[in-house]
Amino acid sequence: MVNTGLLDEVMRLDESDRLEVRDAIEASVADDYLTMELAALLATRVADDDAADHNSYITLEDDEREVRARCLGS
Predict the structure, then answer these.
(1) Cα dihedral angle (18, 21, 27, 53), rounded to 10 degrees?
(2) Which of 5, 49, 63, 70 yields a CA-CA distance of 20 to 30 A from 55?
(3) What is the rounded distance in angstroms from the CA atom of residue 32 to the CA atom of residue 58?
């Protein structure tokens, strides 16, 4: 169970500070097999996802439907 007082304090932090807390927590529980290279790759992917425009995504089903329509139309 999460300590609600601690969670309230963390949620009062700005976004940048909350991300630092998240990274510190992840680092404290990460397995030893996480190499520096893998950690850097994961950090890059998290940053890319944070910056992505998730409203522009389509579902896999919609994509499959569009591909089928193009294939049947040609």
Answers:
(1) 0
(2) 70
(3) 37
Rounded to two decimals, the pTM is 0.41
Cβ atoms of 21 and 10 closer than 8 Å:
yes
Distance CA 50, CA 43 (A): 10
> Max CA-CA distance within the chain?
61
d(CA 71, CA 74): 6
Is residue 19 within 8 A of residue 10, CB to CB? The reply is no
3-state secondary structure of 70: helix
Q: Which two tokens stand for residue 59?
A: 């579902």
Residue at 72: amino acid letter? L
Contact predicate 25/19, CB 8 Å: no
* Residue 40, token pair as written in the block: 């850097």
Q: What is the pLDDT of residue 35?
A: 80
